[in-house]
Amino acid sequence: MDYDLLFIQTLNGIQLGLLLFLVASGLTLVFGILDFVNLAHGSLYMFGAFICAWLTLQLGNFIYAVLLALPLTGLLGLAVERLMARYLYTRDHLDQVLATFGLILVLDTLAHLIWGPAGIAVPLPGWLRGQVEVFNGVVVPSFRLLIIATGLVTAAFLFWLVNYTRLGMLIRAGASNRTMVSALGIDIQTLFALVFALGAMLAGLAGMLIAPITEASIGMGNNIIITAFVVIIIGGIGSMKGAFIGALLIGLIDTLGRSFLDDLFKLFMPSDAAETSAPAVSAMLIYIIMAMVLAIRPQGLFPPKVR
Fold first, then answer.
1. Residue 298: helix, strand or coil by DSSP?
2. Distances, alpha carbon 231 to alpha carbons 7, 21, 34, 219, in Å
3. Theoretical Cys-Cys bridge with 65: which of 56, 140, 161, 177, CB 3.0 to 4.6 Å?
């Protein structure tokens, strides 16, 4: 086995997992805590990428663009919550699915009108275009290391926010019994709006980090939202710990499966059959894992504690 390749692909899997965590953490806040099924969460990921890409071209600095794009994406999330989501919290999930599916079409069209049908490539500053030698000539792009560091810092921040701050206490209390929280004098609508905006910013941050690699493009959030739902189902709906571990698990399984599954299959089947079947199986692997988790532990691997 090529251990250098294994190391690089493991690092790529961790990077993918942390990007998925950024999307899934926002989704688990909105879905698990607000009990709101937001299919348009991926569109906020797309808008984060487009806003960051446009600001990078205007300012000539990717880091400044990210710092400005984050609050702008949060404001977009606030607008979505105020104009649509707020009126759907008490409706059933089918109404939420239909409304947010329509919102996907609206936001995709809006992005098309603002930035045009072509994608926007995001130039990186020179210090992020280089490579870092890890060991024995194995090099890793600097920007991928920045993605991993950003994901880990964000995960630590969310863990602190949810578990050790007054806002986190209110979020958890509102998720458990919003009527009681309202009776205690807490403005539950403002609280939920802040949670929705935070979820939008997390999704937007993931879009901003992936845009320099893939470019910002129309509909880029439609695929990742499916994988994000897989992550929170595996980890446990409403669990930040579950979203983190589930995202890393899915990132590693998807990346390593696409890289090494054909070699595994060659141990017990002809090479032609292995090379033909491995891509198809690797594409289904995360859904097979999800089905296994649902069969064995329907509440997810790390469901939130119920008091």
1. coil
2. 23, 8, 18, 20
3. 56
On whether residue 33 sits in a domain, the answer given is: yes
Distance of CA 44 to the CA centre of its chain: 10
- CA 294, CA 288: separation in Å to the nearest integer? 10
Mean pLDDT score across all residues of the chain? 87
In a domain, 143, yes or no: yes
- C-alpha angle 81-23-108 in degrees, rounded to nearest 5: 60
Host domain of residue 198: 3-220
Q: What is the pLDDT of residues 174-193, one digit of tens each?
A: 666 666 766 777 777 888 88
For residue 191, is it within any domain?
yes
**Cα torsion angle, 191, 192, 195, 200, sign:** negative
Number of domains in the chain: 1
Amino acid at residue number 6: L
Question: Is 277 within a domain?
Answer: no
